[in-house]
Design brief:
By secondary structure, the chain is of the alpha+beta class. The protein has two domains: 1-43, no CATH class; 50-204, VC0802-like. It has helices spanning 2-6, 14-23, 46-49, 77-87, 116-125, 127-130, 157-167, 191-202, and strands at residues 27-29, 39-41, 54-60, 63-72, 95-97, 104-112, 135-138, 141-148, 174-177, 181-187. The strands form three sheets. Strands 3-8-10-9 form a four-stranded antiparallel sheet. The chain has a four-stranded antiparallel sheet with strand order 5-6-4-7, with helices on one face. The protein has a two-stranded antiparallel ribbon with strand order 1-2. The chain starts with a helix and ends with a helix.
C-alpha cells in the first residue's frame, strides 16, 4: 500500500501509511458516499504473502525525464551529477546509463516534473565538473507501475506487463524493477490506456 500511495494511486496519503506501518495500526479505506464496510490495510504473515501477486496499478503524471548526452565515461561522473542534484534536494527515481560510445555515455533519469527546470539549472551550473554534451528534458511522460508481493519468485510478471503494453501498441521509454514493483515510463497521453491494459492483464 505504501508503494501504491507513493506511486500515485491516490487512495491513501503515503505519510498515513508510513505511520500506520511504524506503529502497527490497521487502516480502513471507506467510501464517503456509501456507508458500507471498507478495505482493511494491515500487516500479514509471510505465509499469507506467499501466494500474493499483483495487487494494484498506479499512475504518476508528475514525472519528467532528464537526459545528459555524452558524459565522459570515467569513474566518479555519476557521483558528481547526482551529488549536485542531492545538494539541491532534488529526488531522482529511475536511472539509466548507456553502455557508452567511445569515451562517453548517456545518463538518463527521472525527477518530479515540478523539479525538472531546477534540475536542468543545477546540471548546467555544474557541467564544467562532469563535462557532457546537450541536456534534454521530456515532460510529456507518465510512470505506470504494478505493485505486488512475490514477484521475484513468480516468473513472467514483467513479461505479462510488457505484453499488455505491446498489444495496446504502447511504447516503453524506461523500465525500473524491484522486489515488489515494476514501473515503466511512457507517453503521458497513453497512460490511461496503459493502466486499463495492465489492469485487465493482472486483476480479474
Amino acid at each position: 500500500m505504501l508503494e501504491l500511495a507513493t506511486l500515485g494511486a491516490q487512495v491513501l496519503n503515503n505519510r498515513s501509511v508510513e505511520l500506520a506501518k511504524k506503529y502497527g495500526v490497521e487502516l480502513e479505506v471507506l467510501s464517503s458516499l456509501n456507508p458500507m464496510p471498507g478495505t482493511i490495510v494491515k500487516e500479514v504473515t509471510s505465509e499469507m504473502m506467499e501466494g500474493m501477486l499483483i495487487k494494484g496499478v498506479a499512475k504518476d503524471t508528475n514525472v519528467a525525464v532528464v537526459s545528459i548526452m555524452e558524459v565522459p565515461d570515467v569513474p566518479g561522473m555519476s557521483f558528481k551529477v547526482f551529488g549536485a542534484l542531492a545538494q539541491k534536494r532534488i529526488n531522482v527515481d529511475i536511472i539509466l546509463q548507456s553502455t557508452g560510445r567511445g569515451d562517453t555515455k548517456d545518463l538518463i533519469f527521472t525527477v518530479p516534473k515540478s523539479d525538472a527546470e531546477a534540475a536542468v539549472a543545477v546540471l548546467k551550473e555544474n557541467q564544467v565538473r562532469f563535462g557532457g554534451g546537450e541536456i534534454h528534458v521530456a515532460k510529456d511522460v507518465a510512470k505506470v507501475s504494478v505493485v505486488g508481493a512475490g514477484m521475484q519468485s513468480h516468473p513472467g510478471v514483467a513479461s505479462r506487463m510488457f505484453e499488455a503494453l505491446y498489444e495496446t501498441n504502447i511504447n516503453i521509454r524506461m523500465i525500473s524493477t524491484s522486489e515488489i514493483k515494476i514501473s515503466v515510463i511512457i507517453d503521458i497521453n497513453e497512460a490511461d490506456r496503459a493502466m486499463t491494459a495492465i489492469h485487465d492483464a493482472f486483476i480479474q
